[in-house]
UniProtKB/TrEMBL annotation:
Residues 1-207, 550-577 are annotated as: Disordered. Residues 83-123 have a biased composition (Polar residues). Residues 162-177 have a biased composition (Basic and acidic residues). This is BAH domain-containing protein. It comes from Ascobolus immersus RN42. Residues 551-564 have a biased composition (Low complexity).
């Protein structure tokens, strides 16, 4: 050892290499491993090869354990003499050089990486690891090698002691092996490992105190693939040669070849029927039930292409009517659809539970017409539909009502009868706005004004109005509409009469069919202003039900009968009590708003457009004709691959909103409509599609998959259109995001964006909303001007186009300012989410220490099994996907928490800034806590914005984890406030690029592409910042924001987006349409659609191997798990097992496979008996304590994949994963949580089936953690403490659970504490998306 190295080790005691310590036992060398001997006299290549970062040569890195994070390669020392490459290899080490063999896994502090071949790598070459071809089960278990590390972390000493006590006598444990057995064990473990030649001067640090990467001495010598000598070539058949040449030359994937092999080995496959030309195969498409592909010529607007660019292009598309027919004729789709009225629910999940569905007649046309009628007589008084007006009979006097929605609500069960029917019964309800016409009505509904002097005109009432709502004046009675939705069942208003109410929009309505001024004089009531409710109002939603009854008046006394006398005298004997809950009822009004800011309901637009006629519906109902409403969405997006080139093509898609949430989450249920050709615009390409949708809204005949329904008239309702922000503005007729007022929902100017607009009064927000009739009036004023310049000058402050958009011009009834939905993924995740992460990484973290420490924590973070690799935002910020941004935000608090505060992770400017602001010296821990608090606010807001379930405010449920619409509004405001505050604080700090430019100007350009540029001074003026004002309202209209989010549609779009870069600029629109047409036709045949009944291909499709047919079960078809015969469960039809854990690995993991000779009272026997009860066996049904041949053994597996029919999703379970266990005795009780230690199967004596079990350790609540925003902290119970637990039922604490015990609810994310591995945080704000 050199003197310099000796002095360095004296300065850093305790940090020397473990290789310097004497080894107690040398491991046996692998037969396939060779080493290059060191020749001290050789002068060839005296410069030692340099190695970069640790793990850089491993193809499949293994997650390091917390105790092995700092075991790495040796530090660079003096150049050592190297051996000649021409010298023969040997397996002995050179004592003179001090070199000795050591496995790669030991050097890196990680579990060994399995390989079967190895060879020497020359000096200076990049080492690599190539994997041997694996079986199907091994392919599925890819990445399972780190299971041993996770299990060793989870098992503590108490667990080992408990297992040792249960081990039968005479069977030695891991510490009791004899020397011979131990040597054999080492030889067996060493056979599959790779040996390396390392320097004796090893330093276990990954980087020094200055956080600089250390340089290393010798290159790792790994045999990647050993050359085969000619004597061992063996024989190869002619078929094998052809298959190998074909597969290698055509780059056939593993999945494609597996499908080819299954097809060839199918008993019905006839090789004589295989044609020699692919064209023959493609001609078979004409025998499929294909749809017609239409085309039309569109002008090319962008002429900046190449020399082959033409002035016109061909647009290919499908007729939306054909797409709708495909959905309705498919029984696999139709059976999961909802056709009818909107439904009220305590927890809103589906889109038909949103408010827009209530407003539409087309969406629920199968339930119309609805009437108010006289009891016992079929005398129809009035049609009930959104937009109609009724005169409500109240105890305080008759009140005019405006119906705003019709929905159904589950009927309450009759408590007098215990018998209940399986079919749920619903009552029809309506939501209404009241129109106050008397001053007394203000007191009846507790309407209070914030200011005594309201803005003109003041509220004035006709004092001559009677309690019956009539007046002696010939003029209509003036009323004021209260903008709040009261609800009442239709059975209460069934005998109410209709009334005429004129809502004054004449001055702002340019529709030729708008009511004329004479309509005012013929109406009974006139409304020109409405009263919006401000924050703090607490109205009673069912107030009208309490007020229902005949009005009391002295002008019409009650007849003097005994019964009525008793009723009239009863209230006089009692004290004049106020209505129940009157003290808590309050409606706060800030100002009157003119009705020009009151938007039309969807039903009003449909009637005005001629799509719905109540008289026609009544006639068809009497004649027995049936109608069905099909609700769809329309999505468009461009292929971003060619945004920087001459191409600008894109796709158009549609989804069926009648499907439930699980059905809409499947990309196959979304259909292609067509493509926007290169150079064309969406306006011209979509014109024939939009025109067809307008015709489809009026109805067309179609046959459905419903048995006995026959032919019906189908009406198509376009409920929403989706696109990114720029394209959405174009659909709404608004200019691009750089205009004066870029928001398509409101007309607020860009310079007014920011936090103040979130605090505006409700009345102010309503006046700022864009209205279609107001924009039409502005366009009409612009058309009256002579010059185009004058027109643009008039339109510029409003940021609207001269011509309305294509949907408004050629399409069905459509309000572009509310039906062009907010895409929260683009706005929140890709918009502000990137800025939030970029601020932390670019402004706060130090360039070397901080970013490398963040990278270390990111690699050590245990994500759920369903989450693939997450890109490192310190280097790939610009390439993050929307789902990756949301995922990172939800785990950022835990990543920051695990960062080492003893290092200089924040740059000095951050410390100086906070020291100046706080007036004292702040620590790194304090700054860490500020960053954790910020990302907790961001994650909390995102969990509400992207929540798939919203709790109704009127619901009696008190589930704090499910947000309400008010919670969504509050969390969004909290997020924007925190983001604005941190932006204001850090806006003076230089970015990473600016800091790099100051140190090395030549590297500034290279760094610019690594992270997204964040301009904090203009952050509040971004449209994505402002869209948070409309997020809660968007969720209320569509049920949840997730119902109109774009990720699923992005996946469909990605099918073609990923192919476009490989088309070599060739127009592939027609080829893509044909591909979709063929695949869709095959699905028709497979799903037995009406149009493909008795198709010849159905027999062939029925013979194709699938995971499992309906009612059947499947398992691995090769490997050790293929011999298993699993217990058939309806909920879990498919099983896919990973690799089988061998005997030697089980010993290391303390997984016991033997059951015989265990005492009856042991935790293992008791746990298995308890787990068998989940399979509906009695307790202790199977004998588990007899001889080995009777009780069998446990087989342990690396992982298991199952398909859950209950949730219609796949589950992948591995050791170290947290699973939710349901409570069998009390389903309403909250689920329990446990960490999987092992996965085993067992076939008991007396049964022909194998059963799947999980060996677990339970998680119990510890306390809310104030440092993590009050997140619940869980403690990992040891096996010993679980056995002795007395605070809960002992059966719940057995360490074996059966597969049926897994809860149907989604398992939340648990984040492990890096400082205390036995503790976990329940991450309530975790968001995992597959998009």
């Amino acid at each position: 050892m050199s003197s310099k190295e000796q002095r360095r080790r004296e300065r850093r005691p305790g940090r020397h290499s473990k290789l310097d310590q004497p080894r107690q036992r040398a491991p046996a060398q692998s037969k396939a491993t060779t080493r290059r001997p060191v020749d001290t006299d050789s002068e060839e290549d005296e410069r030692p090869a340099r190695v970069g970062k640790p793990n850089s040569t491993l193809k499949r890195p293994v997650p390091p354990s917390p105790t092995a994070n700092r075991q790495h390669l040796p530090k660079r020392a003096a150049p050592a003499p190297t051996a000649s490459v021409n010298q023969p290899t040997a397996v002995t080490s050179n004592p003179a050089s001090g070199l000795q063999a050591r496995s790669v896994s030991t050097a890196l502090g990680q579990p060994p990486l399995q390989t079967s071949r190895s060879q020497n790598v020359g000096i200076g070459q990049t080492p690599a690891v190539l994997e041997e071809p694996r079986s199907e089960s091994e392919e599925e278990s890819s990445g399972d090698d780190w299971a041993r590390v996770r299990i060793e972390e989870l098992l503590d000493t108490s667990d080992e002691e408990a297992i040792a006590r249960e081990r039968p006598q005479g069977v030695p444990d891991r510490q009791e092996l004899t020397d011979e057995e131990e040597s054999q064990d080492d030889e067996h473990a060493q056979e599959d490992r790779m040996s390396v030649v390392l320097s004796d001067n090893e330093d276990p640090d990954i980087y020094n105190t200055e956080d600089e990467w250390e340089e290393y001495d010798d290159t790792i010598r790994i045999i990647a693939e050993e050359a085969v000598p000619p004597s061992k070539f063996g024989e190869i058949t002619y078929t094998e040669s052809l298959l190998q040449i074909w597969a290698e030359s055509n780059h056939i994937s593993v999945a494609a070849f597996a499908g080819f092999a299954r097809m060839v080995h199918d008993p019905g496959f006839n090789i004589d029927e295989v044609p020699y030309s692919l064209k023959t195969i493609k001609k078979l498409r004409r025998k499929l039930p294909l749809d017609t592909i239409h085309a039309h010529i569109v002008p090319v607007e962008k002429l900046d292409g190449d020399s082959k660019t033409k002035s016109t292009a061909t647009c290919y598309y499908f007729d939306p009517k054909d797409v709708v027919k495909n959905w309705l004729e498919n029984p696999q789709i139709y059976s999961f659809c909802h056709f009818g009225l909107a439904r009220w629910s305590d927890c809103v999940r589906e889109i038909f539970q949103g408010w827009l569905w209530r407003e539409s007649v087309l969406a629920a046309i199968s339930r119309y017409p609805l009437y108010t009628l006289i009891d016992n007589f079929k005398v129809y008084l009035s049609h009930v539909y959104p937009g109609a007006h009724l005169l409500f009979t109240s105890k305080k006097g008759n009140i005019p009502l405006r119906i705003t929605g019709v929905f159904e609500r589950l009927r309450a069960k009759d408590k007098q009868h215990d018998e209940t029917t399986e079919a749920e019964e619903y009552d029809v309800w309506i939501s209404v706005n009241i129109i106050v016409i008397r001053r007394a009505d203000l007191d009846t509904f507790s309407i209070n004004f914030e200011t005594e002097a309201l803005t003109l005109p003041k509220i004035t009432f006709d004092e001559q109005v009677s309690v019956y709502g009539t007046s002696t004046s010939t003029e209509p009675i003036t009323g004021y509409l209260v903008l709040y939705d009261f609800v009442l069942p239709l059975r209460i208003v069934k005998d109410l009469k209709p009334t005429k109410v004129f809502v004054d929009r004449n001055h702002h309505d340019v529709d030729p069919e708008a009511p004329a001024e004479s309509a005012k004089t013929s109406a009974n009531y006139y409304v020109s202003h409405f009263l919006p409710l401000e924050k703090g109002s607490t109205p009673k939603k069912k107030k009208l039900i309490d007020l229902f009854g005949a009005p009391k008046t002295t002008h019409q006394p009650t007849p003097p009968t005994i019964t009525t006398r008793a009723r009239s005298q009863a209230p006089e004997r009692r004290a004049p009590l106020k209505p129940r809950g009157l003290e808590s009822e309050k409606i706060i009004v800030h100002e009157l708003v003119h009705t020009r800011h009151l938007r039309y309901l969807l039903a009003e637009d449909e009637i005005r457009k001629g799509e719905v006629s109540m008289a026609k519906l009544q006639e068809d109902s009497e004649n027995g004709k049936k109608h069905i409403g099909v609700v769809i969405d329309f999505y468009t997006d461009k292929f971003g691959t060619f945004r920087t080139t001459h191409r600008s093509s894109g796709g158009m898609y549609s989804g069926l909103n009648n499907l439930n949430q699980a059905g809409r989450d499947q990309p196959r249920n979304h259909s292609l409509l067509g493509f926007v050709p290169n150079g064309g615009s969406f306006e011209t390409a979509a014109e024939p599609i939009v025109t067809s949708l307008r015709k489809a809204a009026r109805g067309f005949p179609c046959t459905t998959a419903h048995e006995g329904l026959g032919e019906v008239t189908v009406h198509v309702k376009v409920l929403s259109m989706l696109a990114d922000m720029a394209e959405s503005n174009g659909i709404a007729g608004i200019k691009s995001v750089g205009c004066v007022a870029p928001c398509r929902f409101c007309g607020l100017k860009r310079e007014q964006f920011g936090l103040p607009c979130f605090h505006n009064k409700k009345s102010t927000k309503l006046k700022l909303l864009r209205q279609r009739h107001i924009c039409s009036r502005i366009r009409r004023q612009a058309f009256d001007l002579k010059t185009k310049k004058a027109q643009e000058k008039l339109l510029m402050p409003h940021s609207i186009h001269r011509l309305p958009a294509v949907m408004e011009s050629f399409g069905p009834a459509f309000n572009p300012f509310i039906q062009t939905a907010l895409d929260t993924s683009h706005a929140e995740a890709k918009g502000l989410g990137e800025h939030a992460i970029g601020i932390f990484i670019d402004r706060m973290l130090s360039d070397n220490v901080g970013k490398k420490e963040f990278t270390r924590c990111l690699r050590a973070q245990h994500f759920p099994v369903g989450v693939s690799r997450v890109p490192n935002p310190t280097a790939h910020m610009r390439s993050l996907k929307m789902s990756e941004v949301s995922l990172l935000i939800s785990v950022m608090p835990f990543l920051i928490k695990s960062m080492n505060a003893n290092l200089k992770i924040f740059n000095r400017n951050v410390h100086a800034l906070y020291n100046e602001r706080e007036g004292e010296v702040v620590t790194t821990d304090w700054i860490k806590q500020q960053a954790i608090g910020f990302f907790l606010v961001v994650a909390r807001a995102n969990s509400a914005v992207f929540s798939r379930v919203i709790r109704d405010p009127e619901s009696k449920l008190s589930i704090s984890t499910i947000p309400t619409y008010d919670d969504l509004d509050e969390r969004t405001l909290e997020y924007r406030t925190a983001l604005a505050n941190i932006a204001t604080t850090l806006e003076t700090l230089p970015t990473a690029g600016e800091r790099l430019a100051a140190r090395a100007p030549g590297q500034a350009v290279a760094n610019r592409s690594r992270t997204k540029k964040v301009r904090l001074d203009t952050l509040e003026t971004l449209p994505n910042f402002h869209t948070g004002v409309h997020s809660a309202e968007n969720a209320r209209l569509y049920g949840t924001n997730a119902n109109v989010d774009s990720p699923i549609k992005e996946r469909v779009h990605g099918l073609y987006k990923n192919l476009v870069p490989h088309t070599n600029y060739v127009e592939m629109d027609l080829a893509f349409c044909k591909y979709w047409n063929v695949m869709n036709a095959i699905r028709k045949v497979n799903d037995k659609s009406i149009c493909a009944v008795n198709h010849p291909m159905q027999k062939s499709l029925a013979r194709m191997p699938r995971n499992s047919d309906e009612g059947a079960y499947s398992i691995n078809n090769e490997g050790p798990s293929s011999v298993l015969r699993m217990k058939e469960l309806v909920r879990f039809p498919d099983y896919r097992f990973g690799s089988l854990i061998g005997k030697h690995e089980r010993k290391k993991l303390n997984l016991d496979a033997t059951i015989f000779n265990k005492p009856v009272g042991s935790r293992m026997i008791q746990g298995l008996w308890s787990a068998y009860t989940s399979y509906d066996y009695p307790y202790a049904h199977f004998p588990l304590t007899g001889f080995e041949r009777d009780v069998g053994k446990l087989q342990w597996w690396q992982s298991v994949n199952v398909y859950d029919e209950g949730t219609e999703s796949k589950l992948r379970i591995k050791p170290g994963q947290v699973i939710a266990i349901r409570e069998e005795k009390d389903p309403e009780k909250a689920d329990g949580y446990a960490v999987v230690i092992g996965i085993c199967t067992h076939q008991p004596f007396g049964s022909d089936y194998d059963h799947l079990f999980f060996y677990v350790r339970w998680l119990v609540k510890d306390r809310p953690d104030p440092d993590m925003g009050g997140l619940m902290r869980y403690r990992l119970e040891s096996i010993e403490s679980a056995a002795n637990s007395t605070h809960t039922k002992s059966s719940e604490w057995f360490n074996y659970v059966g597969l049926p015990s897994i809860s149907k609810r989604k398992t939340p994310h648990f984040a492990q504490d890096a400082e205390a591995p036995n503790f976990y945080w329940l991450n309530e704000y975790f968001i995992s998306s597959s998009l």
